[in-house]
Structure formats: C-alpha cells, structure tokens
C-alpha cells in the first residue's frame, strides 16, 4: 500500500511541477478554451448561415429558370398558333413594344427568335441562351456594357443572388442577324465568345463545368448550344484545360485576351497554345476563319486558377 501511495504522490508532484512550467496559468488556459470555443461556434454559425443563404439563392434561381423557360415555351406556342392560322405579320406587330423603345430597338426585334423577344423586353442586357444537354447548364447569358461585373451577384431580374448569371465578356460581340445571309444588315459575332460563370457549391451556373476534366464525360457532353437572340448555334468540344489569371506584365499565354482573329498569325498563336494545354485530345480540329465559344470558371488548383472549356462552331 505504501508503494502505491508513494507512486500517487509522485504523479501528483509531477503534475504540479508541470503546471509550474506551463506558459499559461490554469485560469488563463480556461479563458483561452472559452475563447476558442466561442470562435468555433461563431465559425460554425457563419458557415451554416452562408450555406443556408446559398441554398435559398439556389432555390430562387431554380424557380426563376422554370419561369423563364415557361415564358419561352408560351412564346413559341403563340407563334405556332398564329402561323397555323395563316398570319404573316411580324413579331413586333403581334405583340407591340412599348412606346418608350426607340425605333432602332423595334427594328432589332423584327429579327429576334420569338422565344427570346419577350425576355429581351424584360431585360435588354439579355443577349442569348446557353445549354448543354444532360447538365444543369441551361441559362440566359447577360452582358452589361456599363458594368461587366454587375451580374456576378444579380439575377436576370436584377435581384441580388450569389449565383449571379452567366456573363458574356464585354470584349466579345455576340452578333446580330443570321449566318445564312452572312449577317446582312446585322453584325458579325467575334471569333471567340467568352462566357464567365460562378463555381458554386450547389453546382448551379458553372459549378459542375469541372466535370469536363474527365475525357469520358467531355466526349459524352461534347455539344454546346448557344443561341444569340437571332439564331440558334451549336459548338463542338475542341479542348479543355487549366489556366489562371496572370499579372498584366507577365509575358505568357492569356486565353482570356483572345476575342478576334483577323490574321492567320493571331489564330495560330491562340490555337497552338490551347492545344498544348489540353487535358485530352477530343479529335476535333480547327482552322482560321472558324468561330469559337469559351466557357470559363474559377478553379482552386492554384491561386487565381481557371478551368476552361472551348467549343468550335458547327453548322447543320
């Protein structure tokens, strides 16, 4: 018994000695523990609030998409019924625009696809629709010339939403008119249309674009549909790669600076670089004079990282 008492006393004395050499007193340690506990709770609470906020915005976005798509379907139905009845007047005559619209804008509406005219009236920053079959990507694309970043945090109806919208880069020109008549009385699109979207936790917008890093997935979803307000367009997947946003003075390939190829040299420089960076070979080739679409989203493989999907326009 005496041995065990000695052993207990030795352990007690050892602990007492350890406490003497601790950098903090027991009361200080208690305070630190309380502070850490409070910080942990606040951190958890903040994460929870952020997640709930994102889920709410996600739900609003889904409801909005359903409403927008219903709007388009109804517009197509109205047009089909009218055509079946033997009518021949223009869209503008069927559904006149407000008197506040300028004559030039009214003339633009005459060439618009019927499903998009009503949406354009709702918001004239609307410039087209992007969709990829069997994915969540099925959204309007916006372009605000006054503030390129506006739709990073606002939805189609200009209400705050963390998901934002898909945004056509202000240096890209979507074009007006139809390729079949070489955009006569209209405007040619840029060689390359760059569309930006958020990498969301919920997978909305470009949250699942990263799935294209897998070759099997990419080839199974190789057709990208992007309609301007005036014509339906399709693009075939040509390459997928990782990149980043560089400093302006860095002499490196910057995919996000390519919008127009007026010469063979300009095209070759861009084309050779995106092929070098490709994660896999899609088997699709391109030449000077082709048109392209580039989908760009944030990536966390590196600071200021980007994940990029490029398609080449194809014709039926």
Structure, described:
This protein is an alpha+beta fold and 316 residues long. The protein has one domain: Sortase (Sortase, Chain: A). Helices cover 37% and strands 17% of the residues. It contains 7 helices and 8 strands.
Write the layout of secondary structure elements.
Layout: H1 2-21, H2 26-84, H3 91-94, H4 103-109, H5 114-122, E1 126-131, E2 138-142, E3 166-168, E4 192-197, H6 215-220, E5 223-228, E6 234-244, H7 264-276, E7 292-299, E8 305-314
Parallel strand pairs: 2-3, 4-7
Antiparallel strand pairs: 1-2, 1-5, 3-4, 5-6, 6-8, 7-8
Helix pairs in contact: 2-5
**In which range does the helix fraction lie?**
25-40%
Report the biggest beta sheet as strand number plus sense, adding barrel if it closes.
8 strands, mixed, barrel
Q: Spans with pLDDT under 50 lasting ≥5 residues?
A: 1-8, 84-110
The succession of helices and strands, N to C, reads HHHHHEEEEHEEHEE
Please tag this protein with its features:
316 residues, alpha+beta, Sortase, Chain: A, 8-stranded mixed barrel, 7 helices, disordered N terminus
Overview in brief:
By secondary structure, the chain is of the alpha+beta class. The chain has 7 helices and 8 strands, in the order αααααββββαββαββ.
